[in-house]
Amino acid sequence: MHPTISRIVIIGAGQAGAWAAHTLRQQGYQGRLSVISAEEQVFYERPPLSKQVLAGTMAPAALQLFSDEAITAMDIDWHKPVLATAINPQQRQVSLANGVTLAYDKLLIATGSRARVPVRDWLGLPHVFTLRTVEDAIRLRERLQPGKRLAILGGGWIGLEVAATARTNGVAVSLFEQASRLCARSVRPELSAFLMKLHQEQGVDVQLACGAIDLVVTDGGAVRLLREGQLLQEVDAVVVGAGAEIASELGRDAGLAVNNGLLVDEFGRTSHPDIYAAGDVAVHPTLGMCVQSWANAQNQAISVAKSMLGEPCEYREALWIWSDQYDCNIQILGTPANHASRLVERYYGEHQRSFIYLDAEGRLESMVTVNDARLMKLGKRWLKGGTLLPAGQLADITVNLMTLKP
């Protein structure tokens, strides 16, 4: 069906790599499909790691995106666990750390991102964790028993989700954020304030503008947090949630165009016509930034896989992310609102409310919902259709918003 493409290689076996492989086979690709994975467990979801897996309510095997039978049917030439070390675009080859070289007709880079650790020496300290893999979640869960003490460095989404899971399981939690508010890089101040209150109500000790912190492990295995040489706390475990680093170095070293992530067009093509990228590692073609979201990784990978087979499929989807914390399902649609945006609040109660941001003409720019999935579904339609929205009706909870059709 695709006679000119007999060898496809995918680097990465996370959400993007998994859905790309699945789509290639669904679209009728029958050639050799090689997948390179740095982990032994492949094709699994990561959002539950900071929630159900860390809480002990979901077994790692339940994370699989596809059944064993479905994965077997994909007839994949697996290379795991092993790192890809270099790409040679001229010879169309990928080199692996074990000495193997794989030839390709088309290559997909789906290497994602990794945890950013401000001090590299922290990586070797016992009881200091990042949370990116299933192994990370299992090791951390073993340390977080009821009554234990946890410190979290970073007030972004991972840090807040870990805090919520740990508090729900009876762990004492302190969270240290260097900025003056939570999730400052990705949300407006009103949502930061909501998150701050939510976690403080649950007993999290949140310290903002905390300054630089040093970590020292005692002979007994406790971790001491120091600021300018002064002891702040002694805890049983530390989670470093200081953001992410985009794993774009393979593409950069191969000469591909990079701006933090790999630059791609709407079909997922990099600056080399036979090399594509999807997921965290790819700069979103319309937003101009890397998007760390399972929905982006999945949907972009599906579009890119079709385009790799010569069936052009544009990817221009809006940003959509979600987070579960305590009893709150928080969803965010669109890019962060700017200060010129008009804020409309729809308030049912402290834990069911929405922040709606409109442009000067009354069209939706972005939206945050707390426990209101129905409104988020409407918001996606409004954003796509460019619907003009009356602010007064949006704020009035007695108004049926279904009448505001695109």
UniProtKB/TrEMBL annotation:
Keywords: FAD, Flavoprotein, Oxidoreductase. Residues 320-404 form the Reductase C-terminal domain. Transmembrane segments: none annotated. InterPro entries: FAD-oxidoreductase/Apoptosis, FAD/NAD-bd_sf, FAD/NAD-binding_dom, FAD/NAD-linked_Rdtase_dimer_sf, Reductase_C. GO terms for molecular function: oxidoreductase activity, acting on NAD(P)H. GO terms for cellular component: cytoplasm. This is FAD/NAD(P)-binding domain-containing protein.
